Write a sequence for this structure.
């Protein structure tokens, strides 16, 4: 899991980074928005932890980036804003804020990566959460972050119907109207199907369950066409016997 910390106070940025190392996530740190944008150009994080004043100032730029197809949870630890930047002053309030932040990140981590960090296999589909890779039928299929997270969550819940609201809430933390959520999920599902070649019912792993949601499961095997019966050749003796019977019956005079 990728985490980007944006905080102008190096002491608190470092303190957050050290506290979150226990999660096993890959953490990047930026002390201003320009540095953060350079990191975003290379790696799009799973979680953004940003200082509230930077967010207020750069919200428009961040929203513009989100409109291009990226969604991510944003954590704004406002409790740290009232604490001293002096590393010598470690208050109980500061430790409590860091503990709550660590707990929140660990909960989000359960959405993006399974606890075992092992590859997930569903039929011919293999997902590597650590490497962010999707392989289908021995072919690697690159997916953008939003589509990858959606497919990963469905794979973690394979063979179970997951409704649209659960998908939007658990994958992106998004809570909207039912129509908005339905159209959002439908758009991503269509893109995933096209990229993995799941355009036919015979190979569609991502199945729609009308009125309920979506389910990731291997498609039922195509039924084999019934074999055509092969007629055995009739023996010559049977043919001769049939011809003899026909000839004898033709010589008989039908009764009146």
């Amino acid at each position: 899991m990728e985490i980007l910390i944006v905080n102008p106070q190096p002491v608190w940025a470092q303190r957050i980074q050290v506290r979150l190392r226990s999660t096993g996530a890959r953490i990047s740190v930026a002390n201003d928005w320009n540095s953060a944008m350079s990191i975003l150009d290379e790696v799009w994080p799973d979680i953004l932890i940003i200082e509230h004043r930077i967010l207020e100032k750069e919200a428009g730029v961040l929203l513009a980036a989100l409109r291009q197809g990226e969604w991510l949870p944003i954590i704004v630890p406002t409790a740290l804003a009232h604490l001293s930047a002096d590393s010598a002053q470690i208050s109980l309030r500061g430790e409590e804020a860091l503990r709550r932040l660590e707990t929140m990140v660990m909960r989000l981590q359960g959405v993006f990566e399974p606890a075992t960090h092992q590859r997930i296999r569903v039929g011919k589909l293999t997902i590597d959460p650590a490497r962010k890779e999707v392989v289908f039928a021995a072919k690697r299929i690159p997916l953008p972050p939003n589509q990858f997270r959606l497919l990963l969550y469905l794979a973690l819940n394979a063979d179970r119907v997951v409704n649209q609201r659960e998908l939007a809430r658990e994958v992106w933390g998004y809570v909207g109207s039912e129509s908005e959520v339905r159209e959002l999920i439908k758009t991503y599902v269509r893109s995933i199907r096209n990229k993995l070649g799941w355009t036919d019912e015979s190979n569609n792993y991502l199945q729609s369950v009308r009125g309920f949601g979506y389910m990731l499961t291997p498609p039922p095997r195509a039924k084999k066409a019934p074999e055509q019966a092969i007629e055995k050749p009739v023996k010559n003796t049977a043919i001769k016997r049939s011809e003899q019977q026909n000839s004898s019956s033709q010589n008989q005079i039908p009764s009146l």
User: Anything to note?
Assistant: Residues 2-112 form a domain with the Rossmann fold fold (CATH 3.40.50.2300).
